[in-house]
Amino acid sequence: MPRGGPNGGDGGKGGDVSIVGNARLISLLDFKYKRVYRAENGKLGGGQNKAGRKGADLVIHVPVGTEVHDENGLLLADIVEEGQVYVAARGGRGGKGNARFVTPVHRVPTEFEEGEKGEERPVLKLELKLLAGIGIIGLPNAGKSTLLSRLTRANPEVGDYPFTTLTPSLGVLIEDDRRLVLADIPGIIEGASKGKGLGLTFLRHIERTRTLLWVIDVSSPDVARDYETLSTELRLYKEDLASRDRIIVLNKIDLVSPETLAGKEAFFSRAGETVRMVSAAEGTGIDGLKELLAEKGGGRVHG
Ligand SMILES: Nc1nc2c(ncn2[C@@H]2O[C@H](COP(=O)(O)OP(=O)(O)OP(=O)(O)O)[C@@H](O)[C@H]2O)c(=O)[nH]1
Ligand SMILES: [Mg+2]
Fold it and tell me: Where are the extended beta strands (E) located within the chain?
């Protein structure tokens, strides 16, 4: 440049590598094949003060429910929502071109600053945790696990004694192009919210569900009391769980007379509840329940 020094512009910033939740994805299979993800480098600055372009970001889409861990298993991000962004590696800042170093007494700068190196993460572990949209709750032995096995392909242990289920199990129901994830948790008993039985630990697992199925054994001597126990325990644990959208599932209808059933249904209807009557063991009423769940919505299976 006449009577001046070099006039190199700044380098562009490197692109970021981001991980973004996408509700349409249902598996991490893609990551089996493609292993290395790299955002674009920033472009070089040029003469005549021309700044380099920023490198393009790289967006990695993952299913909602993906946990991102580092190589030591430390949780870095829990992608639970559509559009949620985790910047896994930031692009480096662009370097300063020598035009920046011009001062009145230093007209011919040859200095420049190297661009910063972008972040690298040699290893990221992705783990897909199904997020249940529907939680199945009820007293011990109400038939929750039997119901889960009817609604989905899950195969939880079923037993004729309380506390058969010791840890939550999940199942996926695909109905009308909808994919619904159901969680079956251990039975809730009076005092569960204060740590009795197994309830407390597992109530956490249904905190993020949208709808709860309250499974009530219709052959129980006092369904009103069972209902009360459930609502009290949920309320004591978290007010919001007790008022969450729910369906009362009267189970084991094969064990009671039509008159008894009608009386019990009337009790819940009077209470303003949405009621479905099923026999999880025999499969009665299951299709209707599936339809109702699909109407309530869930992630779409296709596009
Ligand atoms: N007759 C009849 N029995 C049922 C029905 N549904 C479940 N059962 C029985 O009730 C018992 C308890 O069923 P589970 O599905 O294990 O009940 P649960 O609510 O998961 O029980 P916990 O995990 O112990 O809380 C088992 O013996 C089942 O076979 C039904 O619709 N009719
Ligand atoms: Mg069970």
Answer: 17-22, 58-63, 66-70, 75-79, 85-89, 124-128, 134-138, 169-175, 178-184, 211-217, 246-251, 275-277, 299-300
